Amino acid sequence: MSDVWNDDEENYAYGLEGENRERPTIVLMGQKRSGKTSIRKVVFNKMSPNETLFVESTAKVTKDRIAASFINFATQEFPGQVCPFEDSLNPQMNFSRCGALLYVIDAQDDYNEICSAIKKMCDYFARAYTINSNIKFEVFIHKVDGLTDESRAEASLEIYNKVKEDLADLGYDGLLHINFYCTSIYDHSIFEAFSKVVQKLITQLGTLEKLLDIFNSGSNVEKSFLFDVSSKSCGNSEETRGFIPLQIYIATDTTPVEMATYELCCDMIDVTIDLSAIYGMKMEGQRSFDENSSAVIRLKSDHVLFLRQLNRHLALVCIVRSENFEKQGLIDYNFKCFKEGIEKVFLVHKKMQDA
Fold first, then answer.
1. By the 8 A CB rule, do 42 and 33 touch?
2. DSSP code, position 18
3. Angle (nearest 5°) at CA 244 between 241 and 249
4. C-alpha Rg value of the chain to the nearest Å
5. pTM here?
6. Which of 48, 69, 228, 287 has fewest C-beta within 10 Å?
């Protein structure tokens, strides 16, 4: 086990904790220059999308760990020119602990290249399924920022139909459930898509969503997100070390997610953490952004964004109309009940694992 994990093991009471404490792995695949490395750099290393233009193509299998987080997991990227099922790469071990297999398709490639990528993807999905039938299969239709809305819809439909056709030829149609997402590193679509992938690794997701629905109903909140704000990227290079708060939400209520609202909530977390780092009181060995942190931002749209830290892993970020936010006592009480509910959910989960 890594030092990072051992340092955090005593106090860790949330997220995924198997008997052997093995991190689930999110495996990234795709053709060369499809955008796999850029996705990792933007989502997990806070790299500016414009800087990814200078990122070199990945030449070897790369693995990073996301630690000290609500959900500790690893990412493993296979270069486009490498077959992940070569015996030398130990595919049995790699895919037996794979939680999600994510394939990136460049939506701006020509039709023949996309068909070639889909053919390879379906073959890889089928072979991974024979090793571990519990893998979640995800497809990122990437670089859609260069397409019009009409072209984006057409490309998505063509890819979906081609995948269905190729899986049927392999005899796997109906066996593999595949989720499709249109993504770009130039907006928050990549963060929302990765949030959906990570959420599938959380067994308590349904309960979290119900708790958020109850909190929203009792507090007149329009939308709420549960963010992972305590994360650490632990790659092998200096570039990937250190505390990096992710813009990944591990749960939201059951109402549809509007991208503008999600972007506002992400920006609020960034601003709050940055201000806390500059002006907050910081004890030795601790971060200034802790479980007692909170923030309020009043918007011109007659809405209020507010953040409440639940524990050192999770923060609740909500948007509410200004007149409803005046009922502070009601919101405080409901938040206290919500926090207790979250703690009970994971206490029960931990007792079941220890039994």
1. no
2. -
3. 140
4. 21
5. 0.85
6. 48
